[in-house]
Design a protein that fits this description.
Layout: H1 15-23, E1 35-39, E2 42-45, E3 48-51, E4 54-59, E5 68-73, E6 77-78, E7 80-81, E8 98-107, E9 118-124, E10 135-145, E11 148-154, E12 167-174, E13 178-181, E14 187-196, E15 200-212, E16 216-224, E17 230-239, E18 246-257, E19 265-275, E20 282-284, E21 296-305
Parallel strand pairs: 7-9
Antiparallel strand pairs: 1-4, 2-3, 3-6, 4-5, 8-9, 8-10, 10-11, 12-21, 13-20, 14-19, 15-18, 15-20, 15-21, 16-17, 16-19
Length: 312
Amino acid sequence: MALRSLFHQNTTYAASDLRALIDALGPQTVSADGVVAKGLTVTNASSKLVVAEGVGLATASASTTGNNYAVINTADVDATNYAGGGTTWAPAGTPTARTDIVFIAVEDKALDLVTSDVTTAYFAYNTTSLPSGKTCIKLAEVVSANGVITTITDVRTPTRRWEDPWGVVGRGVRTGDFGPYAGTTATDVLAASATIADDRLYRISLNCRLYTASGVRVVITMTSSDGTTTYLRLVDTEFYDGTGNTYTLIGQSAVMTSDDLGGAGTRTYKLRAGCADVGQTLYIDAAAVAAGIPATALIIEDIGPDTTVPFV
């Protein structure tokens, strides 16, 4: 494809050119499960699984196609049985739970060896996997047993523009007390799993309520899952009030690059705490630091691209 502009009126482009131009408007990447910009939620109406209005993108499955298909649904539509048999869906009739999948499939007769160009909402019984080799958007997983639906789980992947913040990507919470702990060797308080992307910035936030004797120096770090790599020292403070024991609310945050956090990938981070000196004791109280905020929480938040990295 030579240089093209999507909205030139008196020009007809090949479908492959239009798919490439759509990529300029959509997210930077589309996963194999597709992405949803808005809507396309799934509900149950009698014996139907209904897909609502919405917009999404499906990445082409065939190796020769590339680019993405834009999908729009302008009215509620009943999902069709992928194995054939119409739009009637039946829940599992036994106590053994069954999980079914709801998805949209885009079929292209020029590329997918089908007889017509068609986009269809489907359900498939007893699977959570999309059909192999199909261009799809995954929408929901439906669990049923004893003739009724147990849950409809939203599994849509939201669109994400590279220049936007992606929000919370990891969160670890401890709702119970920690301690009293008198060790100088740091020990685990909680864990948080997060998926880190290259060339992006992350805000690490800690909320907790410490209780210590006056003069105790507390060290709290964020480490690798095995504790051998320290990524961030969140607290290294001697608490002193001159009278005795003291409560201290901690609201600490730091901004880190993806490299600071070990590079791209999905990993588990540990929040670890200990005392700096022998004979000292720390305690993390279970009382909430504020209404609706857990007692101890480690939040990992994507706040956007690292603009110090050259744009390519």
